Amino acid sequence: MKKTKKEIFTLANQLTFFRILLVPIFIFFMLYKKVNFAFYVFILAGVTDGLDGLVARMWKQKTPLGTLLDPMADKLLLVSSFLILSFPSVSYPNTIPIWLTIFVVGRDVLIGSSALFIYLTRGIKTFNPTILGKVSTIFQILTVLLVLLFNYLLQKSIYLQGLFLITLFFTITSGLHYLYVAIQLIKMKTTNLGRD
């Protein structure tokens, strides 16, 4: 029991828990049009994201719980950000297009359901992020960050439209690539089972 508590309450996991708690705080500030605070909270979440990974590697605090919670915390923040920044009444003067939000959320649903299906049917637990997936995440974070920044400065930016299209491109291509990887994992496991 002591070992379980020790694994749960590592510094790396506490930073991840803190990042999860920042999500409703971010939403609160956005709903009450406190864009400056929302911007700072998003930056803080990004800092803790980098810190928990660094702490886990340096102090050897990688745990199964942390491996599960870390990407979940990232997705919670990103999906929440995209959803709330898609409403003109909340996000002003720049808004993330609803079509981009649909693709971003849809991609995450696709990846999540594929990973769950693979785990339940094939018992494969590892579904490592791809380079395209990481690039897609970077552009998604950049999209949220710049929309928040320009809204904080009360500046309408035409350059965001180009960023939206780039983010859409990598969101779609990474989603398709994850789907391809998932199909290959299923085929590989099926082939191995057939040989056994």
> What is the number of helical segments per DSSP (H or I, 4+ residues)?
7
Beta-strand percentage?
Answer: under 5%
Low-confidence stretches: none
Structure classification:
mainly alpha
Helix content range: over 70%
Terminal CA distance reads 38 Å
Number of self-contained structural domains: 2
Q: What is the general shape?
A: globular
| Main beta-sheet annotation | none
Mean residue pLDDT: 88
- Name the helix and strand elements from N-terminus to C-terminus, one letter apiece: HHHHHHH
Task: Give the total of beta strands.
Answer: 0
Radius of gyration: 19 Å
Question: Which helices and strands appear, and what pairs or packs with what?
Answer:
Blueprint lengths: L1 H7 L2 H21 L3 H24 L5 H21 L13 H25 L8 H22 L6 H37 L1
Can you describe this structure?
With 196 residues, the protein is mainly alpha-helical. It has two domains: 70 residues, no CATH class; 106 residues. Helices cover 80% and strands 0% of the residues. The protein has seven helices and no strands. Helix 4 packs antiparallel against helix 5. The chain is globular and about 50 Å long. The N and C termini lie far apart (38 Å). 26% of the residues are buried. The model has no long low-confidence stretch (mean pLDDT 88).
Please give a handful of descriptors for the protein shown.
globular, mainly alpha
